[in-house]
Amino acid sequence: MLDGKRLLLIVSGGIAAYKCPDLVRRLRERGAAVRCVLTRGGAEFVTPLALGAVSEDKVYQDLFSLTDENEMGHINLSRQADALLVAPATANMMAKMCHGEADDLATTVLLATDKPVLVAPAMNVRMWEHAATQANVETLKARGITFIGPDEGDMACGEFGMGRMSEPLDIVDAVASFFRDRSRLQGRRALVTSGPTYEPIDPVRYIANRSSGKQGHAIAEALNGLGTETTLVTGPTRLPDPPGVNVVHVETARQMLAACEAALPADVAVCAAAVADWRVEAEATEKLKKSPGVGPPALVMTENPDILRALSEPGNRRPGLVVGFAAETENVVAHAQAKLDRKGCDWIVANDVSPDTGTFAGDANTVHLISHDGVEDWPRLSKKAVGTELALRIADALEAVAGNAS
Ligand code: C5P
Questions:
Q1: Residue 318: inside a domain, yes or no?
Q2: Buried b or exposed e, range 74-106, using 16+ CB within 10 angstroms
Q3: pLDDT class for 46, splitting at 50, 70, 90?
Q4: Closest residue CA from atom 21 of ligand 1
Q5: What is the CATH number of the domain that holds 322?
Q6: Nearest atom of ligand 1 to the alpha carbon of 326
Q7: 132 C-alpha vs ligand 1 centroid, how far in Å?
Q8: 325, part of any domain
Q9: Catalytic residues
Q10: How many domains does the chain have?
Q11: Nearest CA to ligand 1 atom 2
């Protein structure tokens, strides 16, 4: 159901726009309030009168209309919506969104919004399959935009293939399930660690590792997408902070542990960080110098705190579900199963990080989910998809516990 949800429907210029009055009706039947923004191209295929009649609201078209700006303003159009739905989203519209163009009301609203955006693409199959469009789709997905369709089928241009806009009822279902997912873990708290740690040798040098943080960040983003209040404790990475997530930046393992403890209580903790096992016992206060006749310094190492094990320790501060990672280069599953017991956590996500897998720097991951119930081998997925899938499993597990308790 979409009761009380406010949607801003942006209609761009494709033939599929003729389905938009029906889409508006179906959304409203399910309880949503719909306000429409129509591009110049969109108005070639559907009239503002039709959209205005079915939405029972004004249809906005012009960025420079003094009356519109006085009445509503392009910023308020997004402020007064719970989500933006671009349907149909043409190849051109997606390209503009990708590049942050803002040359009309629709693109300006899309650039100015901090609300979730869903897009239902519609275009000719070759335009959809073009490398430029596919690159734009990937970029938009990486920015957290939700795609609905497109579907395969006959096209208005007489061809057959991928690129048809999803049917209005399917779009309505997808929007409803989007809102359902977003509130699935409302009221729950999640803690995620990500990235490497930097362990100082002296004020200039440090010991680090190759973790990019992509997997941990993707998990935090996905949990946040299910409605958790999410804290991401991250070592230094090149990644932007995921929107809506409370991000704590740290450098060392000890700082990471302190930040995790400060983020408790949590319903779930996912330790995806590649925490340095050891640090230099006595960090030099001044930069170590080369001196003639004196060899290289011998670094004496000491053990770092094990954050995963600390979080897994029984007690009332223990998160209900604790998930660790095992980055291995051989005997991946066997080592990970041993780790499950050693660390005291509930699940281990095991992955092969041998150099030839490209896992460390790359965007894809092949993981095995190991619990006390057994091992699941997942197919090779993007790190984003692993994040989404893991977040859904976490939601299932937390809901099952809540269901048993009630
Ligand atoms: O012991 P190992 O480093 O192989 O274990 C990996 C798992 O333990 C990961 O989940 C990692 O985030 C976590 N870990 C930790 N603190 C450490 C070492 C590892 O939280 N000091």
A1: yes
A2: beebbeebbbbbbbbbbbbbbbbbbeeebebbb
A3: very high
A4: 306
A5: 3.40.50.10300
A6: 6
A7: 40
A8: yes
A9: 157
A10: 2
A11: 326
Cβ neighbours of residue 342 closer than 8 Å, sequence gap 6 or more = 309
Same domain, 219 and 330: yes
CA 245 / ligand 1 centre spacing (Å)? 22
What pLDDT does residue 406 have? 66
CA 310 to ligand 1: nearest atom: 20
308 Cα to the center of ligand 1, angstroms: 6
**Helical segments of 277-367, H only:** 307-312, 332-343
The reply to whether 201 and 239 lie within a common domain is: yes
* Pocket lining for ligand 1, CB < 6 angstroms: 193, 253, 271-273, 275, 277, 304, 306-308, 324-326, 339
303 with 365, same domain?
A: yes
Is there a single domain that holds both residue 239 and residue 126? Answer: no
Q: Which DSSP string do the residues of 206-258 spell out, in sequence order?
A: EE-----SHHHHHHHHHHHHTT-EEEEEE-S-SSPPPTTSEEEE--SHHHHHH
Same-domain check for residues 254 and 314:
yes
Output the average pLDDT for the chain: 94
Reply yes or no on whether the pLDDT at 357 is more than 80: no
Q: Residue 103 belongs to what domain range?
A: 6-182
pLDDT band with cut points at 50, 70 and 90 for residue 24: very high
Is the same domain home to 327 and 256? yes
Three-class DSSP category at 367 = strand
Domain boundary among 182, 202, 218: 182
**Tens digit of each residue's pLDDT (9 = 90 or more) over 160-191:** 889 999 999 999 999 999 999 999 999 999 99
For residue range 202-242, list pLDDT tens digits in order.
999 999 999 999 999 999 999 999 999 999 999 999 999 98
Pair 286, 355 in one domain: yes
Confidence of residue 153 (pLDDT cuts 50, 70, 90): confident
Considering the domain architecture, whether residues 202 and 172 belong to the same structural domain is answered as no
Instruction: Report yes or no: 370 and 340 within 8 Å, Cβ to Cβ.
Output: yes
